[in-house]
Here is the input.
Amino acid sequence: MAMGAPLLRVRNLSVTYPSDDGDFRAVRNVSFTVGRERLGIVGESGSGKSTTGRAIMGLARPPARVKADELMLGEVDLRAQSERQLRRLRGKRMAMVLQDPKYSLDPVMQVGEQIAETHRTHLGSSKAEARVAALEMLNAVHIRDPERVYAMYPHQVSGGMGQRIMIAAMLIAGPELLIADEPTSALDVTVQTQVLSIMDELVRERGMGLILISHNLHLVSSFCDRVLVMYAGQVVEICDAGSLADAQHPYTRGLLAALPQLGLKRDELPQLQRDPAWMDDIATPLETHSRKVGA
Amino acid sequence: MARRVVAPLRRLGGLLFSVALTFLGLTCVTFAIGRFMPIDPVIAIVGDKASQETYDRVYRELGLNQPVVVQYGNYLGKIAQGDFGNSVMTARPVVEDLVRVFPATIELAFLALVIGVVLGIPFGVIAATNRGRWPDQIVRFLSLVGYSMPVFWLGLVGLLLFYAKLGWVQGPGRLDVVYDDIVTPVTGMLTVDSLLAGEHEVFANALGHLVLPASILGFLSLAYIARMTRSFMLAQLEQEYILAALAKGLSPWRIIWVHALGNVWVQLVTVIALTFGSLLEGAVLTETVFAWPGLGLYMKNSLFAADLNAVLGGTLLIGSIYIVLNMLSDLVYTMVDPRAREPN
Here is the structure.
């Protein structure tokens, strides 16, 4: 699926947290590329998937040490950027949607303002221009009556609406890469699909790349083109979403086996047996590609 | 549409009701203090050399022979008419005394609060955003000093240094004697009145007298406000919306002074209101050191003269101001916090 030059190239990304009893390696030698596609990163809590996303944005929680052999956003070497230069990239060329709009929106600022400020920051627009752009953006995330919603405060909007507002605020300056960190896990099941499809629509229309971080294997495999499975800070498997069933790594296979299936009665869900050997550093993750149809 | 008008009115009604209730409680307390303090109000008036007859007559005149409930009713009735009794010390109605001395205290406390807010908030923000580094250490040290140094000591040292040695400021009192009675009181605040009258020389002199006590009180409120701002700010900087703001690429200036501080304000409103209250109350010591003829000095003198009406009147005034401040902070609160606007 990845076409042309990749938007993001990550090679041997490591994030380490120093602590009194030795360093904690939250992310270990993670490598992948993202094109104008939807890449899913799945893993359980603590697997390093969110830390990976934040490290790409240059927003790893201090006192993290971030190291990489290569961290390229298009032609820009992210490792060589100063904080000021990174700031110009964030929101403009790469952006991040967080888990819960209840906490990621500023409670005392009108939501429209929060969309407009990204525009003003990166495009140097006037208040009036930014307002117009924000109203258009609200429209683009399928919000009816943008004028009214613009002046609302975060506590007045629902979770699904809040997340669409967040997406609008992140995409208004036209980034080419969007990192969505568990964007639907705080939402009601009924609006999850709606938010995902709006995100998908925008990402496709604008030819962007999307990294969808989630613990939900089912959601990621049905929504993304490729899936990256992380365990204990490492990528254990990369595969095309369609061929997930053929995944080789025992962890991935275990996860798949644990998924409940419609029409299949089981007395007990199989428990995932963790092999301590999975903690060891691995040279290259397993790769599974889609089989040609009919092959 | 009707709801838009009715809802705020109902809220205002509820607010006024709770204010009235609190005020009633306050009168209970002042009345109880007056009844149970080991000061004999009769002796305070007639002196301890008076005959038993005189004593009994005054005792009855004051209504002290009636049941406590009736006495409290009379007390409330008089307060409702603005009658706080006469002051033994000044031989004038307490209300008149309060109207005369209170503006001096307001002037002092207000300037102190302005100093505390204008400097305290930025200090707190700078300390929080430079946590553990030297700006933080300086602010924390200043806060500690402001917290632990007694105000009378700071006042005396301040007078010694800035008035006696350096001569930068004027001495105790509100005005040099030569400037007395030039300006007719309008607000009772000399700096305001002299400006209104266009008397620049009087203004300069009044300000010279005001600046040192106001700075010392201001320093104390600065210490408190900076400390609270710092800890509120640190809590806000941990919030998820700060991360979202960073992800949008906003400038640190905007993230700190618009987003984080916007949320800190919500909590600061109450702190500032309480600071103003404690400034009025804490003025007793400062006004004594600086011979500042305000409410604090008036109450101190009344207390030492066992002038019960004056003390109770002053107490009631300060208590009422606390109530008003609380009400104001509730109103301002709904202005800075959109979540407080609708009673969901």
Summary: Chain A has one domain: 8-288.
